[in-house]
Amino acid sequence: MKFFVSIIVTAILAFSMGYVLPWWSIAVTGFISGVFFMQSKLLSFLSAFIAVALFWGIMALFISNANNHILAHRISLLIIKKDNPYLLILLTSLIGGVTTGVSALTGRSLVLMIKKV
Amino acid sequence: MKYVLFILFLLLNTAILFVLGSRTVLPLPLGKFLSVQEGVWQNAEPANIDFNANIKLQGIQGKADVYFDERLVPHIFAEQENDAYFIQGFIHAKFRLWQMEFQTHAAAGRISEIVGDKAINFDKTQRRIGMVFAAENALAEMEKDPVSKSAIDAYTAGINSYIDRLHSSQLPIEYKLLGYEPEHWTNLKTALFTKQMTNNLAGYDRDFEFTNALKVLGEENFKILYSDLPDSLYPVIPKGTVYAAQNEPLTPPATADSLYYKRKDTIHLAEEFKPNPSNGSNNWVLAGSKTKSGKPILCNDPHLGLTLPSIWFEMQIHTPEYNSYGVSFPGIPGIVIGFNDSVAFGFTNAGRDVKDYYQIQFKDDSKKEYWFSNQWKKSNQRVELIKVKNKTTVLDTVAYTIFGPVVYDKSFKTDLSKDQAYALRWVAHDSSNILKMWLLLNRAKNYNDYLEAIGYFNVPGQNMIFASKSGDIALWQQANFPLRWKDQGLFVMPGTDSSYMWKGYIPHDQNPHSVNPVQGYLSSANQRPADSTYPYFIPGSYEVYRAITINRKLEAMFNATAEDMMSLQNNNYNVFAEEARPFLLQYVDRTQLTAKELDYLNSVASWNLSNDPLEKAPVCFNAWWDSLEVNVYHDELNMGSIPVIKPERFILLEAIEKNTAFKFIDNINTPELETLSMQVTSAWKKASAHLNTLEQDDKLTWGKYKNTTVYHLLKTNAMAFARTGLMNGGGVGIVNATQHDHGPSWRMIVELTTPTQAFGVYPGGQSGNPGSFYYDNFIDTWTAGKYYPLWVMNVNDFSDKRVKWKIHFSNN
User: Fold this and answer.
1) Chain B nearest-CA residue for A99
2) A79–B28 C-beta distance less than 8 A
3) Which residues of chain A approach chain B closer than 8 Å at the C-beta?
């Protein structure tokens, strides 16, 4: 249950912070998520990863769908040399997820470190 | 252990943020770039986008609304004229901001700031030919005139009000790709834009190549190979027009024979970034006597590099004083090619030589003094600061002489054979207010208004075509064209002697022109403006064959309709091939050809002379002729070892029409005498080998060979934003002048009936955003040779169903 709550809260936090802050706010989000939700390191990572991977992936998918994938066709060809909108969406999702997940690990391990001391 | 783990994660975390947030490891900051809230996804425009808005802007003075039709063409309705320009600036920026800044950065030689040190030579060239100097001179003149100053001020303010409202997530994609942000627009940028167009249209020049050709050929042979008077000339101004004699014809300086014609050395200077000599256009106008409606029809298709975003932006501007429709240049206020409720106007390039080089003798490497009129004269020095992305700023000192800037000297182009320096005299450097012409044309009501308007225009020389609803048609070749003694400016001139300087300009009233001619039509297609009876020396880079097709067709045309005009603008007939093919087929020695070579030959022989996309013959014919020219000229011109330019196509064709033993046909490097037949046959064998390769690559049809491509402005760096493989015909010397990446950048047909019937299309789309449906949505229509009806909205149409969106502007 906590796992699902942490996913949802992290996603909402990432979305709200992204409104006012640059892209790296997902790292701040991940860090907060790691500190706040007392989970194992694996679950900390996974919940933060899933939260923003879903948030970025689903939002990119919605944007791209509404755009008939015009932009994603061109950008995927430009940066991954393959005309495949879904690959670009997947890449977006992974980048968001990994950044947030690792930040959660950092936050979580900080808490664990301080606790021990 | 906990410490180590934390430190490890922290490091990993930092590394990820660094890699994804900077350009140090990856070429793009992928985190920032793909962020759904900040990055490129924000540029993905929904297919059902809603452009409706109420926008409050300081600076709007009266009632002002913009209505967009389904093609995203804005129709600006403003009660105050300055509001119209303000909104035009805002709208240009809204759809084309990156392009506007990039093009004016290019004009100013500031591309290294964006792309790094690979552009330094380009930037230096722009600075050294005096682009910024020219723009500053133009701006001073524009700002002296209260009408043009208030228009530009309003336009600039409109662009900046858009930039100030722009959130970083909404920056055009190119800024996100290249990692920079827009700066404020200035009036100088508008002036820079006009100078970039001037360079494109009046910046092509062959002084160095001609100097070399003169040296290796001698004067007599040079005159044969580089004449600009073809027998088949159809001049812009109808033959038979009587010209007044030149008041005081100029004579060459007494020293010309020794100092000008008999130069001691060739010049090993390969100029870079020369404008495309094909930058040209077609325009024509039919008087009511030739049309079905009884009203004039005016047509124009400017041939420029085809780019995305397009150089053009279509729009309508409606104010209480005027109502004009057409295409504008994102970067300057007003409609540039178009029409209003009374008149229509269009342009083609004059191609006249208004750019001369003078050899400068500096006292020493400081470039502070140069020898002129028997004394050392001080130069003005302008230090150019070229900022370079991620590198230190480059300084470049440019000396300004009495002629103009010294473009080439020891510190630029080190491959000069000696310590030579060349200064540029160019009409583009003169101060002028060319914008005023458009401001006046937009509101012109009749021929006299047009005449007053074009008086403001000094460069680049244009064939300005005109028609009015009252039935007048006119064409003036207008600009400041230097008065020249015969041959002046063909070659590099001595810069030590004042007698080689320009002596003023041809009086405007003696520029070639025609008003309401008996023939009932006028046209121009970058050909020589007048025949040899025109009393002035007018060198230039002229086209011959498009004009022939156009004149033939217009001569024979009666009861013309807009559909006839569409068909003419898309005409693929190859007049040059019509004249040249019989010689090739007659002189090729078939007994020496292989079966394959004969097979290709048959496609040329059976060709209908139309450069249609599915034909093989245009590829075969072009390869043959090019190969023949190389056979004929490479020996005499020493091609490959010194910078020279091949003579125009008509030279060889008209020479062999007169005499098949044309002296250049023989290869002077062999003991035997080559005949036309030997050269034609050898050229065909070489061409066939090339054709065979093309056939194996499936590139033998004209459309595939030509591979018409509309590149993004970042060229091959952004092929994902380009449109390639467009199957269309045409080519050089053909009315449909579409080459690989160059051609009709806007096709317009205006019939001056009431109401006006107009049609147009350009190979692009109104939006500069590669993430928008409106980025390239006109291209297929353009490729198919089709048109859109141009809707001139009027005040009763605000609720017309063609209005798709509306932006209401107010200041509170």
Assistant:
1) B16
2) yes
3) 15, 18-19, 22-24, 26-27, 55-56, 59-60, 63-64, 66-68, 70-72, 74-75, 77-79, 88, 91-92, 95-96, 98-99, 102-103, 105-106, 109-110, 112-113, 116
DSSP string of B531-574?
A: -TTSSS---B----HHHHHHHHHHHT--SB-HHHHHHHHT--B-
| ipTM value for the complex | 0.97
> Are B566 and B782 a contacting pair, CB within 8 Å?
no
Long-range pairs of B180-185 with CB within 8 A, sequence gap ≥ 24: B180/B113, B180/B114, B182/B97, B182/B98, B182/B101, B183/B101, B184/B160, B185/B89, B185/B93, B185/B100, B185/B101, B185/B156, B185/B159, B185/B160
Give CA–CA dist B348/B366, Å, rounded.
43
Measured between beta carbons, the chain B residues lying within 8 angstroms of A79 are 28, 30, 33
Q: Which helix (H) or strand (E) holds B400?
A: strand B391-400
CA dihedral (B40, B27, B722, B724) in degrees, to 10, reads -140
Instruction: Please name which of A31, A27, A17, A24 lies closest in space to residue A105, comparing C-alpha atoms.
Output: A31
The answer to whether residue B30 neighbours chain A at the CB level (below 8 Å) is: yes
Q: What is the pLDDT of residue B32?
A: 96
Flag if B5 and A113 touch (Cβ within 8 Å).
Answer: yes
Contact B546, B281 (CB under 8 A): no
Q: Give kind and range of the element (H or E) at residue B164.
A: helix B146-165
What are the residue ranges in chain B where pLDDT is below 50? none
pLDDT digits (tens, 9 = 90+) for B359-414: 999 999 999 999 999 999 999 999 999 999 999 999 999 999 999 999 999 888 75
